[in-house]
Design a protein that fits this description.
By secondary structure, the protein is mainly beta. Helix content is 13%, strand content 49%.
């Protein structure tokens, strides 16, 4: 009887296995296939000028709203949703999608991930030519960082050439996603 069951299951082939695997796992369940756990997702990103020295239209922090998912075991937000702590030791994948507007020609722009105030990594650096096709730019970037449970992180937008640029209100383009890397 057991042999008959094994033969019948084997007859289903790989498609049966994949169907069972797909139907029994939620998208947030970690698998050996993915190696990542979604721990935070924010779909609304705004500029924040409340925390010096990031308090001007050419040097500001990103503020994160509308979180359909935030696992507080892994991520903690503070300071008006501008600072976060990665609460479990390990590596994290941070993905940022951001739409900038009101950009000036012949200007350079930076998007930094800062750890405890110092630049940890650059999400993006871009410059606008003297004859731009438009005054918008779409950032789609990811990076990996190590979280040690205590360091605070912010995402800082900066331009030395443009005193007034910003994040668009088109939130269908703006998103921050943080995933924990399984080891």
């Amino acid at each position: 009887m057991v042999l008959l069951g094994i033969v019948a299951f084997a007859g289903l082939g790989l498609s049966g296995y994949l169907f069972l695997k797909y139907e029994s796992l939620s998208p947030l369940t970690p698998t050996n296939d993915s190696g990542l756990i979604l721990v935070g997702l924010w779909n609304n990103i705004n500029m924040n000028l409340d925390y010096p020295p990031y308090d001007s239209l050419d040097d500001f922090l990103l503020e994160f709203y509308e979180s359909p998912f935030n696992d507080s075991i892994y991520v903690s937000m503070s300071n008006g949703n501008t600072r976060f702590v990665l609460k479990q030791a390990g590596f994290y994948k941070i993905t940022l999608n951001l739409y900038f507007a009101s950009l000036s020609s012949s200007s350079a722009y930076y998007v930094y991930l800062r750890r405890n105030g110092a630049v940890e990594r650059a999400f993006e650096y871009f410059s606008i030519s003297a004859n731009p096709r438009g005054d918008i730019y779409y950032v789609k970037s990811l990076l990996y960082v190590y979280g040690n449970r205590t360091d605070t992180f912010v995402i800082n937008c900066l331009s030395y050439d443009d005193s007034s640029f910003g994040v668009t209100a088109w939130n269908q383009y703006n998103q921050l996603m943080i995933e924990y890397v399984l080891q």
